[in-house]
Amino acid sequence: MYVSARADYALRAMLAVAAAGSPGGGELVKAAALAENQDIPLSFLQGILLDLRRAGLLHSHRGADGGYALTRPATEISVGDVLRAVGGALTSVRGLPAQGIGYHGVATGLRDVWLAVDGAIALVVDRTTLADLLTQESGAPTG
Fold first, then answer.
1. Which residues, including other chains, have CB under 8 Å from residue 41's CB and lie 6 or more apart?
2. 62/73 Cα distance (integer angstroms)
3. Which of 19, 20, 65, 74 is the most buried (most CB within 10 A)?
4. So what's the pLDDT on residue 142?
5. 87-92, long-range: CB < 8 A, 24+ apart
6. Which residues are bridge partners to 129 per DSSP?
């Protein structure tokens, strides 16, 4: 698995939004503030925020008091949700999702290896939520 700058920035932005408050009741976070606080180029971040909104992970509110908020609680948004929203497949082989790779001859068994790698990655990122990461940041014990 390769973690791109886009994926890293998306997770950092989502954590900052999650830390600001709960869905519908928390503080709205402006893109410019996210960019500055997380040291992310604003023009790059705007595209990421659009992908996260399209994936149903963020709400955007326009206007002077506008900004971004989570669509659901941080306990219900996994790292895997964010990674898939901005990058598609978790594991790729030569730019294709591991599920779409096929081999023949002596290399036939490689597909099973790539699928196992994809499954192992999915297990970790799908069970780790934004709330888990925020709890770790605060120094609270995790379960």
1. 35
2. 21
3. 74
4. 47
5. 87/4, 87/6, 87/7, 89/118, 90/1, 90/118, 90/121, 90/122, 90/125, 91/1, 91/117, 91/118, 91/121, 92/2
6. 78
* The two structure tokens encoding residue 49: 């925020």
Alpha carbon distance 35, 75 (integer Å): 24
Q: Where are the domains of the chain?
A: 5-87+129-138
State the DSSP string of 89-130.
Answer: -SSEETTEEGGG----GGGTTHHHHHHHHHHHHHHHHHH-BH
Q: Does residue 18 surpass a pLDDT of 60?
A: yes
**5-87+129-138 fold:** Arc Repressor Mutant, subunit A (1.10.10)
Which amino acid type is present at position 82?
Answer: V
pLDDT digit string, tens, across residues 54-103: 999 999 988 888 899 999 999 999 999 999 999 988 888 888 888 888 89
CB 86 within 8 A of CB 7: yes
